[in-house]
Amino acid sequence: MKGTVMKTKISIGRFLFALGILSLVACGGGGGSGAPIIEPTGLIYSGVTSQAIIDSNNAAGLASDAFLGGESATDLSIFSSFSGPQPMFVREIKLHEVVQIFKGELYEMDFNAQRMDSLAIQSEQETVFGDCGGSAIYAVEMDDVNGNFTGSMTFSDFCNGETTISGTVGLSGQLDVNTSDFLNFNFSINMVSLASANQSYVMDGDVSFNVSGTTSTASIGMLMRDNNGEVFWVKDYVLSISEGVDYVDINMSGRFFHPTHGYVDLTTINQARIYNVYDWPSSGELQIVGADGTKARLTAVDENYCEIIADTNGDDNYDYGPAQMSWHDI
Q1: Which residues in the chain belong to E strands, given as ranges?
Q2: Per the domain annotation, does 291 fall within a domain?
Q3: Which of 38, 78, 162, 279 is most buried when burial is the number of CB atoms within 10 A of its CB?
């Protein structure tokens, strides 16, 4: 496949929005309030570093945050019950959308455009302007013998869909030179800022993708600072998204740190299914586990509602809930 150059047709706006979502993934804390944790480089996490004790006051917030990968309305003390007051905070970014957006962008990259020269290392650079201001510059080099590529994207107040991004993201990965299919894809996010509606974040971390047919698996390590100055942390977070004809199935696991409560470990009990016509899961169940055997489960009732139950004393009996709430209220 000698002479192949990477002609990128990335929708920068959606790519940026994806980065923002990832930053939200980085909503974490730690174990005991000891020495600050630096993970991975640019931001410092100095919140609680012990395992959280899940109780009736934080069960809904921790379960929602672990699923969404960021601050939910429940953290703002807005959620009390299904029939309680409606939140003023609108969730703009959802973690489970990240891989879908990223994968879509991966397949927008065209590695098949031909050049007349015979150089093995091909390079491409382009400036793209946002639909509401700013610019983004990408520069990529690919070895069309082994399929390895590296590069960067630099955003300068790039605005698309009312989402504004500034900062630099490093790119690297490999594709199959015979089929042009991606084998893996990596993002190095270095203190990138994101602003969208009433949310703003600075993110720092790494995301690695492995792609196999219709399934994408993302491994995420990320720190995120919100507009209140709190730093959150997602550690060893793994998202697996499999595409069906008109839906996606999502499995997730990892350690989610909340700066006030500490960390919980997240696992999928039943994979979440989201149909393309809806924003939220129609089925699925997730579990978070805290200290002393405490735990909580978030279950999709349908595409409009979910419910949360919790074992607040570690005896394997769910003594809190079920608390039913609208997906839009989390």
Answers
A1: 4-8, 37-38, 44-45, 109-114, 121-129, 135-143, 148-160, 163-175, 182-196, 199-212, 215-226, 231-243, 247-258, 262-275, 283-289, 295-300, 305-311, 320-326
A2: no
A3: 78
